[in-house]
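Notebook entry, structure prediction.
Reason for the run: the old model in the group folder had no record of what sequence produced it. Starting over properly, with the input documented here first.
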Amino acid sequence: MPLLSSSERRTRAALRVALSHYVANGLSAALGLLLISGGVHLFFGAFAAAAASVGIIVCIPPDQPAPKRGKFWQLLPAALIGLPIFFGVQMLHAAPISLGLLLVPATFIAFLAAAWGKRGLPISISVMFAMIFSMAVPQHANGATVLSTCLYFALGASLYLLWATLANAVLNARYREQMLADTLLSLASLMRTQAQQFSSAANEPGGPMPLIGQLLRQQAALADQLQAARDILLESPRTPRRQRLAGMLMQVLEMRDHLLACELDLDTLKAHPGHAPVLGALREVLEVLADELVQLADALLRGRIPAPTVSHRPQLARLQWADDGTTTLDNLGPSPALLARGLASRVGHINDETLHLIALARGEAEPDVALVRTTWQMFVSPTAWSWRPFVAMWQWDAPPLRHAIRAALAIGTAYAISLWLPWGTHDYWILLTIVVVLRGSLAQTLERRNHRVAGTLMGCILAGALLSAHAPLLVLLVTLTLAQAVAHAFAIKRYLVTAVAATVLGLLQAHLLKAGVSPAFDVLERMADTLLGVAIAWAFSYVLPSWERTQIPALVARTLAAQARHARVALGLGQLQAVDNEPELEWRLARREAYDSLSALVQATQRSLSEPRAVRPPLVPLGRLLAHSYQLLAQLTAVKTMLLSRRGRLTPAQIQTPLREAAATIEATLSGRPPDMAPVLPDSADGLGPVALLDPFEHDLSPWVLRRLDLAAGIAVQLRDDADQVLLPPVA
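New structure, fully documented this time:
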């Protein structure tokens, strides 16, 4: 890939954002807002259109790229819960005390939706939007007017439900390509970070900052992204195009495993000066492969056939090993030259997967249709709403319950303060700020706090200039539509952009709701409301806090259980007889849970860095636990690769018993119980005595499998020790 200038790189990065799935989704939501509110305006007038647009905005937060199945039911709760809340606020508009008595329990109920995790939080935001934007509607003189306003709200919400469901179906094919491209870009970024590990200066005290933290964060982000991609790409893979894209996603999963295995033996090789040129060459190959993934992602985003590529196997074959002879297990361990060849082989696997990935994209290779059809239903997230999270949350230490209480108290306090403010013309603005800033964790609240203040300032200036210029209605509607597109598109990716757009959106929406009122806009008043709302949200983030330390034990237990299950399944004897069968599927499920559990633990650890030192979990053993967890995955991945792709070079009689014993030992170690049998040692398998680790490319691979099993068992012991230190009660 030729070197690009800085302007070309920025242009390509901007184009990737413009062609991304989240921008497409934002534009779809904004177009629905424009068409529906414009149609209502045409038939019923400006006020009806403004009220209908509130119903639309309430339904937009849960409208994310999703599988076609269950899309309507994903959006429906926002409308069903939002309508009575909107009506209740309208009825109590002229009674501030009664309105306050409604706001507090309504907020509590709205934030209970957080019990459903990522699916529930947008519903919470939607319900709060229904309540807050209802406060922005002018007071009515009689119940009939209130009823008509609610009917316009319901009309807008109903039409948007239909629009969003149809738009998601129409964009489904495009979403598949965009989600896969986004996943490829994340994998390429992870590949470049892994390539930096090949440098002898990486992770040294006097060198650059250690990369392990960055690798852990990228692995966690990729795990979340892969699940989002699975939900769309693996749904109903009936057509050849869908099967090809789903097959490409399965290749990405294999590449992630091979990339993780590249971490093995790096410390030994970097300690051997003679292998610096080899590591440098391997780093260059990984970086070139990352560039090829980026080119493939760009081709998918642009709807083009990717350019063909060539294999880097010849370049790997020309590497010169600093051979210092083959050693045995009774002295210094395996030869660094053999370790280097093994590392080059793992890079070669990534090269092969990249070639196959591009061949699939070009239509020159066929996907594993049987695997795709067998696995898609088991890897797609459920779309039905269940009562189980709601029932399970009624415990005093449950984070969703505490957050709901915290949010209700914050909203009640803010509303009481707003009634005493000297200006008080837009009291709902303080409440809106609290809704978007106050998150379930302190780290997220602090991030939202900073972005909200900066974004509101910029948004106030933009909206103030537009309203002061007395822009015509059409310009305001177009601006509101674009603001909605940007606010929705970047809500997860970059909240600062969303804060700017949301400020413009909220102010224009309030202005349109109060047609006939002077457009004069006081930037200082809006900023004062925002700063006050931010301060209240920040203060209440310390009320009934759910510190990450209280969640860590459950996450650690989940991680250990997932690692134990993955070890048991990966080393299962069924893998020696077949690949595309039930044991293979069980292994894939176990692998996903291992990565997902680590992702949750990494994210919790990252969030804890923003909490007060006195309540932080023990970060040092947590860091070791995470590192050892990925090392265990890497060792088992290396064994799995040998069992699947190079089984013809193995001696089953020599490795069957050690495989079974290693699985039992690792599972017993991680569960904290004494193992039923002695740990596996490479020189004790079947009483063979010391085993020479000969060239794995010319001799039996079985001794190398035994070595990996021994290393995995040792890492499991370290992992258990790390977990015990993390779970120690805090010192008073």
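Summary: The first helix runs from residue 6 to 18.
The old model has been moved to the deprecated folder.
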